[in-house]
Design a protein that fits this description.
single chain; alpha+beta; five-stranded parallel sheet; 16 helices; 37% helix; globular; binds flavin-adenine dinucleotide
């Protein structure tokens, strides 16, 4: 299939505005004739549902949570980027565009990244208008801080709770529409199938998680805003419930999956402490504004940090990257932390950690200053480790955090299935091989508030829709298929709790498809994953039944999909014989240990097409062309 990215012609800075003008509009009084299903109520989904309803479209909003506010976006801590340049430190739309493209190691579309930078400013205005309590400076202006991969301060924040505050804003907008009757919200519904009629996405099948009843929803378009798939690795910083089912089911119905191997490992997480852990906790990147990362210069040094004198510490990021120091992008900081630990410089009980130290910042600005900026993060760390960060440095280690890959979408955010739009972390669109900090919230809200509402209107205006009801044979077929699948889970009646199988998968993924990948390890993973899949289908113990609340059954469905996605992820990682951003192939590195891209062979988006169960997926390539920024070796020195 030909991949049409639909990037508009014209100069970079005019592409979006001229596209907006050229797209068709739907007359206000006709809008109520069109309907959309939005799956997900995180920042992307809530903003999209509210905006579409405000325009006058009929919207069905679906979430497996009991409230839109429970979406994983609520966990976002550090901030959201926009090049407002209030700090007068040289920021601009072009600089944000440049930083993002370079940060993603030149594996994203220029036009998308420029548009993202362009609309990011109005996101801040929109959120301020909603009452989002961004931090302000003494004069009352919005305050900003710095995030990795940038030398300016462009990150707007609300202490360490930016996602929560932004989601409350989007939720208020959504609630207004629910109250007005323009959005019908269905809680505790898990989308488990996409329904495609005459080649167009026209509905979804959900399982009502309270009653087990399978319900059909029909509309003119379907929007997936269902978040990332980092939990394929079992341990991650993502919400426990985050899963890949919605996008995986869509993949199996014909939506291409782009760059599945582009996974982000975040450098500042609380290290793993034992085998029974089911979740990892992020310590926001914002901490790297004031915290200094170091390890002892002596291998195996087990002295307490306070006993290690200044000249026996290695502030390795400051040493290796003097220009960006502790604020190098996440992929770089993560790899260096792993390298330090692998070489025996790690700290703490497990020796799989490095220090993030605030002593200098406390000395410089006082405890109160730190408390105001990072208080809730310090409290969180204290609750988990019982350690006092005002006295001792934090211990951190990289963990799976975000997925840059996702369903392939064109410039209009539409997948390869007409009428299926994908927004937020669920798509692959803007971050290339490595997302810069504070850019996910920016992308989710850009997609939901400012991009999708235009592009979907154009789709509605240009498309003829047949009238459709949920008794259409495609709905019946999808429901029947789902019922059979659920029946298969319950019939396994094996011995292993599904969680244990997920844990095994996670270990394989971390060991062989994690921060460093090589051909041998990836081939091993591709041998082991099908074995675990077989274990699942023969020995999983899915207790209970299907006609009421059954958390084990929910998990089983999600894990079955993770198992399939894991294979695609490893397959993609094996095929991409280059290092770029979060995808680090040991075989491809510079003498200094930096990622070595191969632009001649791999300057493309890998869009995988489902060809059948247990069949090799088909690779479709979208070539990446760079007219404005010349790809070069990323340097943060
Ligand atoms: C700890 C943490 C901190 C972070 N901090 C930052 C930060 O400071 N700045 C930044 O830019 N980014 C940050 N990120 C990343 C950012 O939070 C996410 O990328 C972003 O919030 C994703 O938003 P989303 O709307 O795409 O998806 P989500 O917020 O994940 O929402 C997904 C929604 O889809 C629903 N859903 C999913 N599948 C189904 C299904 N099958 N059926 C029904 N409903 C379904 C869920 O119920 C949920 O409502 C952070 C991430 C983590 C893990």
């Amino acid at each position: 299939m030909m991949l049409e990215s639909k990037i508009p012609d014209g100069p970079l800075e005019k592409k979006w505005s001229s596209h907006c003008f050229n797209m068709k509009l739907v007359n206000p009084s006709n809008r109520r004739k069109y309907s959309a299903i939005v799956v997900g109520t995180g920042l992307a989904g809530a903003s999209a549902a509210a905006s579409l309803a405000e325009l006058g479209y009929k919207v069905i909003s679906i979430s497996y949570h009991e409230s839109p506010r429970r979406a994983h976006s609520i966990a976002a801590q550090g901030g959201i980027n926009a090049p407002k340049n209030y700090a007068n430190d040289g920021d601009s739309v072009y600089r944000l565009f440049y930083d993002t493209l370079k940060g993603g190691d030149y594996r994203a579309r220029e036009a998308n990244v420029y548009r993202l930078a362009e609309v990011s400013g109005i996101i801040i205005d929109q959120c301020v208008a909603q009452g989002v309590p961004f931090a302000r400076d003494y004069a009352g202006y919005l305050d900003m801080r710095s995030f990795g991969g940038a030398q300016v301060s462009r990150t707007f924040y609300a202490r360490g709770q930016t996602g929560q505050q932004l989601l409350l804003g989007a939720y208020s907008a959504l609630s207004r529409q629910i109250g007005a009757g323009t959005v019908k919200f269905f809680d505790r519904r898990e989308m488990m199938e996409l329904v495609v009629v005459d080649g167009m996405a026209r509905g979804v099948i959900c399982r009502n998680l309270r009653t087990g009843v399978m319900e059909s929803y029909v509309a003119d378009a379907v929007i997936l805003a269902t978040g990332g798939y980092g939990n394929t690795f079992y341990l991650s910083t993502m919400a426990k419930a985050s899963n890949a089912t919605a996008i995986w089911r869509a993949y199996k119905k014909g939506a291409f999956f782009a760059n599945p191997c582009f996974t982000q490992i975040h450098p500042t997480c609380i290290p793993v402490s034992g085998d029974y852990q089911s979740k990892l906790t992020l310590m926001s990147e914002s901490l790297r504004n004031d915290g200094r990362i170091w390890v002892p210069k002596k291998q195996g040094d087990s002295r307490a940090p306070s006993q290690i004198p200044e000249d026996e510490r290695d502030y390795y990021l400051e040493r290796l990257y003097p220009s960006f120091g502790n604020l190098v992008p996440r992929d770089v900081a993560s790899r260096r932390a792993k390298e330090m630990c692998d070489k025996g410089f790690g700290v703490g009980k497990t020796k799989m950690a490095v220090y993030l130290d605030f002593t200098d910042a406390i000395k410089r600005n006082g405890k109160h200053w730190i408390e105001e900026k990072y208080g809730n993060l310090f409290d969180m760390y204290h609750e988990i480790t019982a350690e006092d960060l005002y006295a001792d440095p934090m211990r951190i280690y990289p963990a799976v955090h975000y997925t840059m890959g996702g369903l392939w979408v064109d410039y209009n955010l539409m997948s390869t299935i007409p009428g299926l739009f994908v927004i937020g972390e669920a798509n692959f669109s803007d971050h290339g091989a490595n997302r810069l900090g504070a850019s996910a919230l920016m992308q989710g809200l850009a997609d939901g508030y400012f991009i999708l509402p235009y592009t979907i209107s154009d789709y509605f205006a240009r498309t003829k829709f047949s009238s459709l009801a949920t008794d259409h044979p495609e709905f019946t077929k999808a429901k029947k298929g789902l019922a059979e699948r659920i029946g298969r889970f319950l019939a396994i009646k094996g011995k292993q709790p599904v969680n244990e199988i997920h844990k095994k998968l996670g270990k394989i993924m971390w060991d062989f498809v994690g921060m460093e990948r090589n051909e041998k390890g990836l081939k091993k993973a591709l041998k082991l994953i099908p074995e675990i899949k077989k274990e699942f289908w023969t020995d999983a113990n899915v207790i209970g039944d299907s006609d009421n609340l059954n958390v084990e059954l929910e998990k089983a469905g999600r894990i079955a999909d993770f198992l399939e996605l894991a294979e695609l992820l490893a397959f993609d990682a094996l095929h991409r014989k280059e290092s770029c951003g979060g995808h680090f192939r040991e075989e491809c590195q510079t003498p200094e240990g930096e990622a070595l891209r191969n632009d001649k062979k791999y300057a493309y988006t890998a869009a995988w097409e489902f060809t059948g169960d247990d069949k090799e997926p088909k690779l479709n390539k979208e070539p990446l062309t760079f007219e404005y920024v010349k790809p070069s070796e990323r340097s943060y020195k």
